[in-house]
Specification:
The structure is a homodimer of 526-residue chains. The first copy, chain A, is an alpha/beta fold. The first copy, chain A, has 18 helices and 15 strands. The first copy, chain A, has helices at 11-18, 24-27, 30-39, 59-71, 74-82, 115-134, 159-174, 190-197, 217-232, 276-286, 288-305, 314-328, 346-358, 390-395, 423-440, 467-488, 499-509, 515-523; strands at 41-45, 48-51, 109-110, 113-114, 148-152, 181-185, 205-210, 241-246, 259-263, 333-338, 376-378, 402-407, 417-418, 421-422, 457-462. A 6-stranded mixed sheet of chain A has the order 1-2-15-12-10-11, with helices on both faces. The N and C termini of chain A lie far apart (55 Å).
Chain lengths: 526, 526
């Protein structure tokens, strides 16, 4: 029997607040520090490890966090989710994105359809279509092969798929599996579409229109923008466009598209990268096999996230240490810092995933909560960030917990030795150095050169950023966000906070405004 | 006579803490709200306006902030800076980036050189070189024109120039002044250089190596990486590379470069976009005239920032309202939200500018301060952010002040009418709607759909994102950061917090580690 409880009603949360805080500088120094790095690590799928040695916990705090996981029934709540209960209470929907990549529990039949079969079926339909594009069965009107795929979508239909494409573009190049270049149009700013289109050969481009509802303003506007450009180029838009949408959307049966692929209301936008939302564009870009490998990595991380043993469950562990940092230690922000240029837009995806899921002030029953929930998430790849905002992270007045990601090998395997080390070694050396610099600091009598340390971080370490590794990374953070939502007792799967702006924007466009809104509209020339 | 004082010693700061806070929902509602939007606005150069109607201030608070500006001698400190005093106390340097774009006060002669003439002279040398590249006097070995410029630099040698290039790339396309495409290599990750090089025609590319000291690890490594690639392509690297550095650097007199252009120690990296650091790559990309227009916009904003009248000085006003939000209201984070896809990397530049300048815990004399200093800065372009992290901004448990930027016209002037409005109108309508949604909120009995409002923002409004507008935007934020540094009495122009990581990374590469650092290094395969 699952009970949904607010954070501050839990006995284990009270115990957590009462635990003695650790001195991270001491804990991470000397042989004890070395021992922590060796033991505070747990496999997270696809050959990667989640190492939490530099997070501000010790065995005592971990034991209280394990009590917390049990009292808040985190494993049971995850099981309820993947077994198909209505976890998204706000919108009264199931939450089934895990089924796009594996069968974690019971079969879920909804509206007479086995949902796992439905998602697999759509993947198979996408793969079949993609293979026809790649082998030249589906071409442009002149019989020429398509060379570029351009996704039209915004938010969850853009950030995840774009981040994953960039994560694997160079990997695919060197593995001879970059079938088509990908581009992305998202913003309603006309310069976004016009700028992207100016770089494409329209006659050889296929556009993937992604909108679950089929009513997203930005996406429909950009679809028209693209159709207009295709028409001006003398091309038949319906031969250049596919739709990814729900079966009930106005796009589903339209003859405007070469094909339509489906997801449903049980796949939230920010959790949709492993559905057709990511699957169509990524399969076109890299081939269905690469996308399947990506799903395998995600499925592996999902399986690990089922463990009821906190110390064997990196997503739950990451989530609960994050709750401790946020609610007990009072840190309002978290930075995501991948030491991999290929992950340059991964922090932007996590920013949506985390902030849109858990940036809530009411619990799942719509009652106000008396504690802070989701933090601000931001980040850039290292070593770039070191030459940018790390100054504040090291010596600023606030403490910002950090989430590093690092790999032993580069993707492209093109490297040079300068001063006895490769660039990849320099990259890896820098992330190792930063973790210790943040944790341990360094005393200096000149306080301007003094580093207090005590700044917590974890690191995910992998061999190489492969499709499976990207899948596991994605699933790790999806599951982390889910466990944090359960911990705070919020509904991580709706987003009512985006509605008011939409309503007011419509009023502005209809010139139905007064007061401040009218003056702002005038100043902006509307 | 200037006196440098800590924030918490100021009478006006104590008065500020004691002022009554405003109710933003009330203040922005009805006719009073409309009146605020009309009156709380001030020109900021290049035809743009800084509108602060939705920031949490009223006439009383503004009057105390004016007292604060006077007591903390902000105009006098800015004058001391541009007149050449040693404002960067940590490194004992002058701070002269304003001189790259104008003569704000006295001539500054250092080491026998008139610095304004020096910077102007380098601009002229760059323009002369660039014109020769554009007109084909300087070519590759085969006599073919260069078509692409690739900047090699990191931090301040990357973020600002890259953000400005992206801001003007599409504008230049439609104004027939995109002379050369630009690319950027920054990260020591070998996949960054290898990935970028795989997209370039090396034989037609010119590389701009940017390092003031001539010793930046990442940049020198990437230079070798590029030279290696050029050699493998049978090209003479010295015919494909220029340096931007200081006259005393090892790069200055090397025969490895077609030319070397100079800045000096009085131009900090994150303030160097208007020096040769930005000037060389941007002039090659767009032509020297476009870069000159950019400088004119910056100079205009600088002139406005000299005003001792707070209400006529948008940079000072933005700075002091920010201090009020940070220190009195306790908000730890600020988001920068440009409603312009062209400004997609502008928030990343501001992130460095702000966090590296003011993320400090000691004052300019090296004494610890007892108050918080620089906030975390993050942001993405709108409307994209609306479909990502705005959920937390609207309904999360923390309040995040917002800095919007919006324009009446698009850059490329390619647009379509859908549902009676253009995309540009939809874009502008959305930013107007968001400001009011954040400020006023909307009550709903269903608390999950309730918007409390009271979330402050300002907006910079311009006609179009032109070179001058980009210059004024850049200078506005540079000057804002400077005024905040003066307010907190920190040295905004050094960055000692980046040193420890460098030292430890060297130890890792030399295998001179023990304890936790050794284990992390082992795990990362170094």
């Amino acid at each position: 029997m699952i009970t949904w409880k607010n954070l501050d009603t839990l006995e284990s949360y009270k115990a957590l607040c009462a635990t003695e805080k650790i001195n991270l500088v001491e804990a991470m120094s000397g042989e004890a520090g070395a021992e922590r790095v060796k033991t505070y690590t747990v496999p997270m799928g696809a050959g990667m490890d989640f190492n939490f040695a530099s997070r501000p916990v010790d065995d005592k705090i971990l034991s209280v966090l394990a009590d917390f996981a049990k009292e808040q029934q985190l494993p049971e709540k995850f099981a309820a989710l993947y077994n198909g209960e209505i976890i998204n209470t706000g919108e009264k929907r199931r939450v089934l994105h895990h089924m796009c990549r594996g069968q974690l529990g019971d079969a879920v039949v909804a509206d007479g359809v086995d949902k796992r079969e439905f998602y697999l079926g759509e993947q198979a339909r996408i793969a079949e279509f993609v293979n026809k594009v790649h082998n030249g069965e589906i071409t442009n009107a002149k019989g020429e092969k398509f060379t570029t795929v351009c996704q039209i979508g915004i938010g969850g239909s853009d950030l995840g798929p774009r981040a994953i494409y960039l994560a694997l573009e160079n990997w695919a190049k060197v593995n001879n599996t970059l079938k088509m270049k990908a581009a992305f149009i998202s913003n309603v700013d006309p310069d976004d579409a016009a700028g992207v289109l100016s770089t494409l050969d329209l006659s050889r481009s296929i556009f993937v229109l992604v909108s679950k509802s089929g009513t997203t303003l930005e996406t429909l506007t950009n679809e028209s923008f693209v159709k207009d450009a295709l028409a001006k180029a003398g091309l038949d838009a319906s031969r250049h466009m596919v739709a990814v949408t729900s079966e009930t959307s106005p796009l589903a049966k339209s003859s405007d598209y070469l094909a339509a692929f489906f997801m449903d209301d049980y796949i939230g936008g920010r959790f949709s990268s492993s559905s057709g939302v990511g699957g169509c564009v990524l399969s076109l870009a890299f081939g269905p096999e690469v996308f399947a490998d990506f799903l395998k990595g995600a499925a592996e991380a999902d399986e690990i996230a089922k463990s009821a043993d906190l110390l064997q469950n990196p997503a739950m562990l990451d989530a609960l240490i994050g709750v401790y940092e946020r609610n007990v230690l009072g840190y309002p922000t978290t930075a995501v810092l991948p030491y991999s240029q290929a992950l340059s837009r991964f922090p932007a995806h996590l920013q949506q995933l985390d902030m849109e899921s858990n940036g809530k002030s009411v619990n799942r029953f719509g009652e106000p909560v008396n504690y802070v929930t989701g933090p601000v998430i931001f980040g850039e790849p290292g070593t770039n960030g070191q030459h940018s905002f790390y100054q504040l992270l090291h010596q600023g007045t606030d403490i910002i917990p950090l989430q590093f990601v690092g790999f032993r090998k580069s993707q492209m395997d093109t490297d040079i030795v300068i001063q006895d080390s490769t660039s990849q070694q320099k990259l890896a050396a820098n992330v190792a150095a930063q973790i210790v610099a943040f944790a341990c600091g360094k005393q200096d009598d000149n306080l301007n050169k003094n580093f207090k340390g005590g700044r917590p971080s974890s690191i995910i370490i992998g061999e190489k950023l492969t499709p499976a590794a990207v899948g596991a990374l994605l699933a790790h953070f999806e599951n982390k966000v889910m466990f944090q939502g359960f911990s705070w007792n919020v509904n991580s799967f709706d987003q009512e906070g985006v509605q008011l702006g939409k309503v007011l924007a419509k009023k502005v466009l209809a010139h139905e405004t007064d007061g401040a809104l009218k003056v702002y509209s005038d100043l902006l020339g509307i």
